């Protein structure tokens, strides 16, 4: 009665806690996702059970996490505790969260990080610790147990020190983000334990710390992103005594500040990182006007960078910016250049001619006008260019724009959208290979033969078009969204059209001419085109049936057995023919069927192992090494035995054990043509009853003498004498 009463009280207590949780967080009642965010909670509510996989407690007033708060949440995958007031966590608060994959403790009041918090979070992949008040990570690593960690975000405005052992235990990260605006002490080698980082973001203001971190990351990080740094002159090499190869492929500066002097120096220093292929500068400020040390830059050799992106760079006196004469040797290998939202109004013709390898050029959202475009795209400029984006500039004349880009003989893709052309001429000159043209949002009222007939893709969305009557024989995609069209384009002039977007127009009727083209009855489509899903399904079913037949045939003719035996035979062939005498541990290895184990273990083993002197027998049931593969056990046992004794019976040749595992030993014993095999016939058996794949066993029974177990007691003594003699030979 007392036991029943105790169980009843425990169940009642648990039910009351669950009820309390449901009252605080109603969403916990119906799903595995428990949303308790922004509830004004001062503590983690009771009643959190193993059914919950996602627990959101963000944006509350929780100050302390107790040991028992999450003790029952053994199936929790995500725990969101950001934006609370957490200042203390019991050492074992997270010990039951072995399945947790995401933990967010950001924007709290943690003054230190304890390794014991994370000691049992074996499945953790994402950890957010930024926005707390800790100044360092301690003397050792708080993360040494997090072997599956892939994302780590840490740091805060007061975070000042990184020590050598702080990242021990972490070997691979997809993303590492360190908010270190106050980081002033970095012990060299601190980040070296991490073998690979795909993307690292650092908020830094200290140039010396930046240089030290770069040296540690040369062999581990692929993409390094540095934010908020005010770069100053750096005399030391970024690579110093580091050995090749490096791993850095991409370097991004965001919200950074440069001077002309530092630009010159960083260009020289970055050349030492020979693997660097891509440079980005986003939302940066250049405190200068391009007065770079061209001599230092050119004498330091060629650049290995292939892609440069400059987006929204602020140059206060941009109209005074130098023409960068002399930097031509640094741009020969560039194949992609983006300078967007940066008030570019011209590129000097002399400089443009040296972009000999450039394939992609993006000048969108700048201040290019037609007369400056004529200088920017002068004769022989950008000789390899295939893609050009001039959208969102101040181009006014479509005819002049076309004339300028016609000098780009290899141009294929052109985007001149969001320029206010207003008018369109009847004739324009374009590059001969142009296939993609974007004229959307350019205020053109109609379309004329100015549009090149070579196009495969044409976008004239968001204009004032009232009709479309162009002859474009190669066109595959046509975008006419947001115009004033009242009828569809005729089909005949665009016979190869595959896709057309015509949303937000004024269509109200369709005519027969609009659908002119091949008649439906005259079109002969393949079965695949008409019934793709059906054909794919039939192919999958056919493949499945073929696999099923192959499995059935293989099973019937013992294909798996032959493969396994061949592998075992190859293993045996690589080993010495016989083990050295000193390695022989047994007089005989006994091969027998489990159905004959009573005779083997109770009669034969007792007779032989209790003889004087006793024989040492190896039995699989007694002497095989536990946990070792069965074939390896058999190989080792045979090689460590002087003889191999086969106890033959009807059970022996029919049992799966002997058939698929044990009798691989034929490969070794019978290939050697020696007397290591002793055959004991426990009951009369015909050689034809032995499976055909044991051809050598069938042959040896026909050619070699074997011992036959007599049923008469008076003859059994002779049997034992003969067997002992065979074992001693």
From TrEMBL:
Protein's GO biological process: inflammatory response; innate immune response; toll-like receptor signaling pathway
TM annotation in the entry: 534-555
Pfam families listed in its UniProt record: LRR_8, TIR
Record's bilayer topology term: Single-pass type I membrane protein
Primary location group: membrane
SUPFAM superfamilies found in the cross-reference section: L domain-like, Toll/Interleukin receptor TIR domain
Subcellular compartments: Membrane
Any one GO CC term of the record: plasma membrane
Intrachain disulfide bonds: 28-34, 349-378, 428-450
Record protein name field: TLR21 protein
